[in-house]
Structures are given as structure tokens and as C-alpha cells.
Write a structure and sequence with these properties.
By secondary structure, this protein is an alpha+beta fold. The protein has one domain (about 70-315): Creatinase/methionine aminopeptidase superfamily (Creatine Amidinohydrolase, Alpha-Beta Complex). Helix content is about 20%, strand content about 20%. A hairpin with a 6-residue loop joins strand 11 (about 275) and strand 12. The radius of gyration is 18 Å and the shape is globular. The structure holds 2-amino-4-trifluoromethylsulfanyl-butyric acid (MF3) and cobalt (II) ion (2 copies). One cobalt (II) ion binds near residues 156, 158 and 167.
């Protein structure tokens, strides 16, 4: 039951181009710098915290990566909520909005539905979601950065609900985006979907990255190696590693029914190598060219992967 086919192309914020102007065909080189952060957002006391809150690093997870049906249903609920928060938060994306505005909205969306935003206080991450603009590969920290026409922005939203996590990210267009950036975003989505469709029980985990990298190579895109897909559910990151590049013969552990993990490739227009900002989180491409990412949490069935991070019909149509 591969629900993959029902998915559409990347979400956009629809906007009418200014008359007489046409989008540039090539992507600008990034010049992003760190903004200022707002104070920590409170989480109501009645919402259960994940076990890593207040610790420097999460306790080691020693449980399984394949779950029983009851646990999978709980992960499905957390994943659906993350996807619903994505749909709702993305509606705010427009020139003039700050990444902190997006964090504030997503935080409220999750806590008002009884969920803890998994990013908040994970290894001291200071905000509730990740917002990664243009040359930021992943883990951008929401701050006073103002989105501008032509930017691309990734929102990574993870919900902790009923003791389990669902992890989801998508890249969005801010107004009209140049063709090179648009194609990168669309092809990164397709790369993720090809990785997901490669998932079948009995195959080695490295089939996922092989499908992603072979597609990315057609376009000469870089495939980031150091940030990976991961087992998710009873822990935010279980220790199970899903590379997005062709890692064979490594990562040959066999995929099993009931396994839950993410597929979340990061593709770049130029180099796959990166620099880390002094905040210890924000990873930017070394050449400051643009990069895109998509992420789904999936569960493995006998006939392939099912995507769990799909919005409920209610949120999707709102
Ligand atoms: N959601 C990210 C992932 O896909 C992890 C973010 S960790 C944070 O694995 F601390 F940066 F939020
Ligand atoms: Co993830
Ligand atoms: Co994520």
C-alpha cells in the first residue's frame, strides 16, 4: 500500500507576478547572516515532555525500530499533526514575514493540540521548528530574518504526541522564484519520493540513497552526506541511519515490516560540502549556492512504504 502516488508536487504560496517582470532564470548566491532570537516560548505544564528536555544530549535509545500496530497508530497521529501544522504554517509564508513568525505560529498550533514541538530544547536547540532559507541546508534557527520575494524556505516540524514523534519537512517558494531554484525544489521532492518508493522489506537500507543519488546526478546536484534520515517514533532519532547517497556496501541492514524511519534528502545546486555557523546548528553550503530538502516519516509494510506525514483531509482543505 504505497500511498506515495497520491502526493502532489511541492507546495507553493501562490502569488501573481508583478506585471512586466519575469523571474530570473538563475539562483542568487546567498548572503544570509544570523538574526536576533526572541525569548524561549513556554509549553503548558500539562503537555508531556520528551526525555531529552533539560539534558545536553538525549538518553541512548535501545528499543526497536520496527513497531507493533498500536505504536504505529500513535506515530501516525503525531505524524499527521506535524503535517497539519505544516499546511497551516505554510499559509503564512510571504515576503515580509520573519522565520520567528513561522516558529511562533507552529509552536502555538502544536501546543494547542496537546503536542510538544520536538525541536525545542533538543540538544539545546532554542526554537520549536527549523527554518532553513536559501543556502541553509538544514537546522536553521528561527529569528528576525525577513523572508523576501524569490527566497526558498524549508520548514522542519516535528510533533511529540502520546509518547512518540512524527518528523516532516518541506521547502516552499516565497513569491516568484527563479527557474533554477524552482527546479531544484521540485527535483528534491521527486528525489525523496524515489527514495521512498525504493523501500521494500528485505532490501538493504542503502537502496534509498542509491535511488536518491542516481536521480540527483542527472542534474549534477550535490547530495549532502552528513545529515541523514533516521529511525523515528519512540525516540526523535533512534540510531537507525538512512543515508541519502549511494553508501553500498555500507548500511546494508535489511528493511523490515513495521520499521518507521524518515527519508529527508538535501540536494544542492553546487558543492555538497558545508560550513557551520557559530550557533552550532545552521549548516550552509560552502559555496553559498541554494539547497532544498523534503522529509517524510514512513512505515514499512509487506508491499512497501506508507507515508505517515500526510495532512488530515480537514487541514488540507482549509
Ligand atoms: N527535524 C530534524 C530532523 O529531520 C531534526 C531537528 S533537530 C533540531 O531530523 F534540534 F534542530 F531541531
Ligand atoms: Co528527521
Ligand atoms: Co525533520
Amino acid at each position: 500500500m504505497a500511498s506515495a502516488q497520491s502526493l502532489t508536487t511541492p507546495s507553493t504560496t501562490s502569488r501573481t507576478p508583478a506585471s512586466g517582470s519575469s523571474p530570473q532564470s538563475s539562483a542568487p548566491i546567498g548572503t544570509l547572516t544570523k538574526g536576533t532570537l526572541t525569548p524561549e516560548r513556554p509549553v503548558p505544564a500539562h503537555i508531556p515532555r520528551p526525555n531529552y528536555v533539560g539534558l545536553d544530549e538525549p538518553p541512548r535509545y535501545t528499543g526497536e525500530d520496527a513497531y507493533d500496530a498500536e505504536t504505529i497508530e500513535r506515530i501516525r497521529a503525531a505524524a499527521t499533526l506535524a503535517a497539519d501544522a505544516m499546511v497551516a504554517t505554510a499559509q503564512l509564508i510571504a515576503p515580509g514575514v520573519t522565520t520567528d513568525d513561522l516558529d511562533a505560529f507552529a509552536h502555538e498550533y502544536l501546543v494547542s493540540r496537546g503536542a510538544y514541538p520536538s525541536c525545542l530544547s533538543y540538544r539545546h536547540f532554542p526554537k520549536s521548528i527549523c527554518t532553513s532559507v536559501n543556502e541553509v541546508i538544514c537546522h536553521g534557527i528561527p529569528d528576525s530574518t525577513v523572508l523576501a520575494e524569490g527566497d526558498i524556505v524549508n520548514l522542519d516540524i516535528t510533533a511529540f504526541l502520546d509518547g512518540v514523534h512524527g518528523d516532516h519537512n518541506r521547502t516552499f517558494f516565497v513569491g516568484d522564484v527563479d527557474d533554477e531554484s524552482r527546479l531544484l525544489v521540485e527535483r528534491t521532492y521527486e528525489a525523496m519520493m524515489r527514495g521512498i518508493r525504493a523501500v521494500k522489506p528485505g532490501r538493504p537500507i542503502n537502496v534509498v540513497g542509491r535511488a536518491i543519488e542516481s536521480y540527483a546526478k542527472r542534474f549534477d546536484y550535490g547530495v549532502v552526506r552528513e545529515f541523514i534520515g533516521h529511525g523515528v517514533g519512540k525516540a526523535f532519532h533512534t540510531g537507525l541511519v538512512i543515508p541519502h547517497y549511494d553508501a553500498a556496501p555500507e548500511y546494508s541492514q535489511l528493511i523490515e515490516p513495521g520499521m518507521v524511519f524518515t527519508v529527508e534528502p538535501m540536494l544542492t545546486l553546487g558543492t555538497r560540502h558545508w560550513d557551520m555557523w557559530e550557533d552550532g546548528w545552521t549548516a550552509v553550503t560552502r559555496d553559498r549556492r541554494r539547497t532544498a530538502q523534503f522529509e517524510h516519516t514512513i512505515v514499512v509494510h509487506d508491499d512497501g512504504a506508507e507515508i505517515l506525514t500526510l495532512p488530515s483531509a480537514q487541514e488540507e482543505s482549509s
